[in-house]
Amino acid sequence: MDPFVAGLPKCELHLHIEGTLEPELKLELARRNGVELPYGTVEEARDAYRFDSLSSFLVGYYESMAVLRTEPDFYDLALAYLARAAAQNVRYAEIFFDPQAHTARGVPFDVVIRGLRRALLDGERLHGVRAQLILCFLRDQSAEFAMATLLESLPYREWIVGVGLDSDERGNPPEKFAAVFARARREGYLLTMHCDVDQENSTAHIRQCLDVIGVDRIDHGVNALDDPELAAEIGRRGLALTVCPVSNGFVTDGPKADVIRRMLDLGLRVTINSDDPAYFRAYVAENLDVVRRELDLTRDELVRLERNAFEAAWLPRAAKDAYL
Ligand code: HPA
Ligand code: ZN
């Protein structure tokens, strides 16, 4: 790891808390909750994290969540992430959570959010990392289930900064959730959506994010450059793209570093993030280091990537300025 990358103050904007479940904690939670796993050692559990596409990744990802049951489980998960983040000099993080992946198997919404919320408060106190929550809807579930989840979140409105959209993109375009996101906007949530790498209809989905949903950010979005007019519009709106190079490398042919270079050259607000670091075995510093090596980035360019992220953070101006 390059020492400059290691020491750089960081901002992480694309991080699924369920994707931070390391095999050690997974085994501990399985024991605690009496959940049977098909493997008994950390090595076997790590070996089971194998996939070569978004869909094959998602299968193991949702199966692993069976060990998360109680409020302390969600607390332990998030506090462990924040401790790791602090060790990489992450100063601020926006953290996705997937409530439907838990409520669908009988874990109440309030168990999930109370555990996460308590970890965020303790994480700032104990580790000095500030963080906010983004509620993600599962796009391969119905719009009705998403709307019900949005309504369920409203009593906790003050604990959630925005909403996102994740899971399997195939056949699940942004416009499927137009009414849900319009309501979320009216409730004061900020809006983002995944436009995963190299999907069917990638540019059409990004276009819907702009024209139908009116997103405040795009998660991944690396195919925006396939359409120069789309890329220009993202630039005009100053929308940030939360790119996850190591994650992209797992589900496609590589980390898409050439795209990151072109985004930098076009002056787009590109940011570097980890997505599901326990599965892709790379936290944000390792992701930055991959891009540094691939593109031979200068220190100024590395600083620019982190400034882009702090600038794009869903924080009041004065709070962002404190980091910049
Ligand atoms: N894409 C879609 N769904 C996800 C992802 C992702 O990158 N990570 C966790 N769930
Ligand atoms: Zn993601």
Architecture blueprint of SSEs:
Elements: H1 3-7, E1 10-16, H2 23-33, H3 42-48, H4 54-64, H5 71-87, E2 90-97, H6 99-103, H7 109-127, E3 130-138, H8 143-153, E4 160-166, H9 178-186, E5 190-195, H10 202-213, E6 217-220, H11 228-237, E7 240-243, H12 245-251, H13 257-265, E8 269-272, H14 277-280, H15 284-295, H16 299-312, H17 317-323
Parallel strand pairs: 1-2, 2-3, 3-4, 4-5, 5-6, 6-7, 7-8
Residues 16, 19, 54, 166-167, 194, 196, 247, 275-276 line the site of hypoxanthine.
Give a brief outline of the structure.
The chain has helices at residues 3-7, 23-33, 42-48, 54-64, 71-87, 99-103, 109-127, 143-153, 178-186, 202-213, 228-237, 245-251, 257-265, 277-280, 284-295, 299-312, 317-323, and strands at 10-16, 90-97, 130-138, 160-166, 190-195, 217-220, 240-243, 269-272. By secondary structure, the chain is of the alpha/beta class. Helix 2 packs across helix 3.
